[in-house]
Amino acid sequence: MVKIIDYELRTSEEGKSFYTLILQGETEIVKSENGNFYATARKCSLPCTFDEQVCESMIGKELVGSIKNVNCEPYEYINKDTGEVSILNTRNVYEPKEPRKAEPSIFEPFMKPSTNGVLEHA
Questions:
Q1: Beta bridge partners of 47
Q2: ∠ CA(2), CA(7), CA(12), 5° rounding?
Q3: Can you give the pLDDT of all 122 residues of the chain as single tens digits?
Q4: pTM value?
Q5: Gap between the Cα atoms of 19 and 34, Å rounded
Q6: Rounded to the nearest 5°, which phi and psi values hold at 57?
Q7: Are 46 and 21 in contact (CB under 8 A)?
Q8: Contact by Cβ (8 Å): 13, 70
C-alpha cells in the first residue's frame, strides 16, 4: 500500500500549473554503507487533474500498489537542505497493483449463455 502524504503545485515546461500528489511507500529497513541499519520509506510524486481542495482531501488515503526505484537518464538533483548537487540515474515511481482477475467458477463448464432469455443447461 502507498499513502498520500501531501501535494504540491508545480508548473509544466509550457507554463501551465498542475498539482501532484506526494506518495509514500511502506517502511523499509536498509543497511547503510557503514553497516548500520535505518528505517526509511520511498517517496514519489504523481501528477493529477485534481484541484487543491480535492488534493487536500486526499491526504491520508491509501492506494493499492508500491513505489519502485527504476533506472532513468542521468539528471542533477539538488538537496534542498544542504544545496549539494548530485547526479542521479534512478528515480522512484508509483506502480499500481493490477486488480486480480476473478477465478473461473467451478460451475462454468455447466453454464451456457442464454440466447433467448431462458435458462438452459449445457
A1: 20
A2: 115
A3: 999 999 999 999 999 999 999 999 999 999 988 999 999 999 999 999 999 999 999 999 999 999 999 999 999 999 889 999 999 999 999 999 876 666 666 666 665 666 666 655 55
A4: 0.72
A5: 38
A6: -70, -20
A7: yes
A8: no
